């Protein structure tokens, strides 16, 4: 890269040597000449800026380029077009991948300076991934809109119903709690009644025992009194 204020470096011989190396590497001759619209009618629909080696060579010779970096940029564009148009796995796509890996080295071998920041060429797969992400984002936004619409619809309709259900549920819980309290009170009363009954029976039996003892003593005293009376009668 030229420094600020310096004229960009351009050497016609180096640029032409670079193009010749690329030409020789192109075993399929897919980059030699412009793509024919007759042979590939859809090519110019897919590829917006077509470029090829013969066009680049002519531009070098005619002075169209003013910097070596411009030549390298057009070569990179040529490779990117091939990766975009040709299907993965085809010989055309495979050769474009080979060019992408080696074109910077060929430029250096030709004596050209190469800026590593400018040599990256995205593949069609990378572009496909970007398109997929955009489609996914759009789809998710549409789904989110539908979900929000459903939530809004649900919010308007059952609000009073939910309140009524909640009140009925709350009332049922209170009644259930009251029943439980009543049952507890009844059980408590029953237990107290049983305790009182046991206490009464115990007192009653104690009284009977005491009463029985008392009556026996009285009978003995009565017998003694009768004996005394008999003695008195005998003495008389």
UniProtKB/TrEMBL annotation:
Region Disordered: start-end pairs: 168-236
Bilayer-crossing regions: none
Keywords: Bromodomain
Domain of life per record: Eukaryota
Keyword Cell membrane: no
Acidic residues composition bias: residue spans: 192-236
Limits of the Bromo domain: 23-93
SMART domains to which the protein is assigned, alphabetical: BROMO (SM00297)
Name of the protein in question: Bromo domain-containing protein
Originating species: Trypanosoma vivax (strain Y486)
């Amino acid at each position: 890269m030229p420094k600020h204020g310096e004229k960009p470096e351009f050497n016609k011989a180096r640029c032409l040597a670079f193009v010749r190396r690329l030409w020789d590497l192109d075993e399929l001759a897919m980059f030699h000449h412009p793509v024919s619209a007759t042979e590939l009618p859809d090519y110019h629909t897919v590829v917006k800026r077509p470029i090829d080696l013969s066009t680049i060579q002519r531009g070098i010779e005619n002075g169209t380029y003013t910097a070596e970096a411009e030549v390298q940029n057009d070569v990179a564009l040529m490779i990117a077009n091939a990766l975009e148009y040709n299907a993965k796995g085809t010989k055309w796509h495979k050769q474009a991948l080979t060019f992408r890996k080696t074109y910077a080295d060929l430029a250096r071998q030709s004596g050209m300076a190469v800026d590593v920041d400018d040599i990256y060429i995205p593949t069609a797969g990378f572009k496909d991934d970007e398109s997929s992400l955009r489609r996914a984002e759009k789809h998710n936004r549409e789904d989110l809109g539908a979900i929000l619409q459903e939530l809004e619809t649900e919010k308007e309709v059952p609000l009073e119903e939910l309140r009524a259900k909640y009140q009925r549920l709350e009332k049922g819980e209170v009644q259930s709690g009251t029943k439980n309290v009543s049952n507890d009170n009844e059980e408590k009363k029953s237990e107290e009644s049983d305790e009182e009954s046991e206490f009464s029976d115990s007192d009653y039996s104690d009284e009977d025992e005491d009463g029985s003892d008392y009556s026996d003593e009285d009978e003995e005293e009565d017998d003694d009194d009768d004996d005394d009376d008999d003695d008195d009668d005998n003495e008389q």
